[in-house]
Amino acid sequence: MVKRFNIRVYGILINEGRLLVNEEIIKGRSITKLPGGGLEMGEGTIECLKREWREELDMEVTVLEHFYTTDFYQPSAYDDSQIISIYYLVAGEVPDLIINHVNNERTYWVDLGEVSAGTFTLPIDKHVGDLLRQRFI
């Protein structure tokens, strides 16, 4: 039984026909997702997004617009929570190479033309992959 909400906030950075994605190990499982993470108590969603990008990628981003918020029920694969994910299109200084050693994460570019549900691991991200394909391809 679901006992709480788990709110996640992610950024979508597109540059020169490429999408920035993040790969990390969560509880022994490799997950491909967009950069971002969990909302902390007392924090707004945009503040959370900016903090996550600073912590994970050492990047400052500007939020351009809201892209998507989960509109279906998604239980967590890891605990007894319901996941609600919020995605924003972002802009920022674009590094040629990102070396990310936080929590054994790897951040890299994917050609936007190749992005689909199959790019990502988790159900909400898969849906966003399809939405990105519909909007930008």
Structure in words:
- By secondary structure, this protein is an alpha+beta fold.
- It has a single domain, classed as Nucleoside Triphosphate Pyrophosphohydrolase (Alpha-Beta Complex), CATH 3.90.79.10.
- It has two helices and seven strands, in the order E-E-E-E-H-E-E-E-H.
- It has helices spanning 45-57, 123-136, and strands spanning 4-15, 18-26, 29-33, 36-38, 61-69, 81-92, 106-111.
- Strands 1, 2, 3, 4, 5, 6 and 7 form a seven-stranded mixed sheet that branches.
- The N and C termini lie far apart (39 Å).
- The model has no long low-confidence stretch (mean pLDDT 92).
Instruction: Assign the CATH topology.
Output: Nucleoside Triphosphate Pyrophosphohydrolase
Label the structural class: alpha+beta
The CATH superfamily title: Nucleoside Triphosphate Pyrophosphohydrolase
Cα Rg:
14 Å
Q: What is the number of E strands?
A: 7
Q: What is the share of helical residues?
A: 10-25%
For the report, how would you describe the main beta sheet?
7 strands, mixed
- Tally of discrete structural domains: 1
Low-confidence stretches: none
The number of helical elements comes to 2
Based on the structure given, which CATH architecture is correct? Alpha-Beta Complex
Could you spell the SSE succession in H and E letters? EEEEHEEEH
Label the overall shape. Answer: globular
Q: Can you identify the CATH class? A: Alpha Beta
What is the residue-mean pLDDT, rounded to a whole number?
92
